[in-house]
Amino acid sequence: RREPLALINLKKKNEETGEEELASRLDHCKAKATRHIFLIRHSQYNLDGRADKDRTLTPLGREQAELTGHRLASLGLKFDQIIHSSMTRATETTEIISKHLPGVKKISTDLLREGAPIEPDPPVSHWKPEAVQYYEDGARIEAAFRNFIHRADAKQEEDSYEIFVCHANVIRYIVCRALQFPPEGWLRMSLNNGSITHLVIRPNGRVALRTLGDTGFMPPEKITRT
């Protein structure tokens, strides 16, 4: 939807100036800035909680979030916003990270909630959600990808740096889609709690993966994958 040619009405092309008019309008719709997307997996949480509100961060999870927040702050970047899943573990992770990034606005969204994005290939025996879950969650997670992962708006003049705090399944699916890999392969990747994945979206639409699931800033004894 952000391909420049798709952003103009060809029926309104000036018949007198022809291609020059079209080229001018295309230039006006082209992105000029680069978007930096930082995908953060939530920290370790209480697996015994029956409802989402009970699945709060563990003491170790809170330490992990502090380390992730410190790492992001140490990059010296001017972050524009933190968009996070509305699930408890992602919200709590965001609150801790945001203490290290004062003034950065926070936005909660249901689109980034955890779920089953698409049936993995090859299939696995240890995780088999009901088929209906793929249809319900998959459409929502695909909507999250389309809504958040795209080239910069043509009006954006400077490069942007955005943080998304969400979940392993969501991040792995987004990475596959952004890199134009078969999305069914999302489960072949593994992400630690509090890890940082960095995607770069250039003005021409090309996407590069700078880091995937980085937790090198954490002491080994603090790293978990639950």
UniProtKB/TrEMBL annotation:
Subcellular location: Mitochondrion outer membrane
A GO MF label: protein serine/threonine phosphatase activity
Domain of life of the source: Eukaryota
Protein's UniProt keywords contain Mitochondrion: yes
GO cellular component: mitochondrial outer membrane
GO terms for biological process, alphabetical: positive regulation of mitochondrial fission; programmed cell death
E.C. no: 3.1.3.16
Alphabetized UniProt keyword annotations: Hydrolase, Membrane, Mitochondrion, Mitochondrion outer membrane, Necrosis
Catalytic activity, as annotated: O-phospho-L-seryl-[protein] + H2O = L-seryl-[protein] + phosphate; O-phospho-L-threonyl-[protein] + H2O = L-threonyl-[protein] + phosphate
InterPro entries the record matches: His_Pase_superF_clade-1, His_PPase_superfam, Mito_Ser/Thr_phosphatase
Pfam family, any one: His_Phos_1
Top EC class of this enzyme: hydrolase
Keyword Transferase listed: no
Main location: mitochondrion
Family the UniProt entry places it in: Belongs to the phosphoglycerate mutase family. BPG-dependent PGAM subfamily.
Protein name (Swiss-Prot/TrEMBL): Serine/threonine-protein phosphatase PGAM5, mitochondrial
Gene coding for it: Pgam5
